[in-house]
# Entry
Amino acid sequence: MIFRNSTTIPSKKNVEELKNHLLGKHLQIHDIDFEILERNGYIKIIPHAEIDNHIYTLPITRLQIIATDNGTIIKTLSKPRRIDVGGPLMLVIFVIFSLVAAILLYFYGGESYHSTSYILAGIGVAVMLLLTFRLQQGYYDYVRKINRWIKSHA
# Structure
């Protein structure tokens, strides 16, 4: 998946102490509650935004705690919820199609289609820049703040 983000965080605490410290906690990011629970052998940070009317791309973060000689290593893997990934993925597919169409028009369309291919490529780049900006403000901001919270509590 193209929206996955992973981080490795070192900690001085042992595995059991870290699990006891993290499990059952809640954290608030931009007025959205995230709960830390254990599911399927992993610790997961899950957003509670079922009631919210706004459209967000929210991450589900999975923590894997690995014991080492002098503490633990926490590996985080953040990915968007299945319900949220459709919109950004459709925009990425649109950008790819518009760039491919622009390239094909430029090379096989003849001289009269060169300006059309530039416009089509510009639209694709503008949509990609807008998508990147919105994801940095939303989804990746949540991921950064979750990782910062884990570092401060590990």
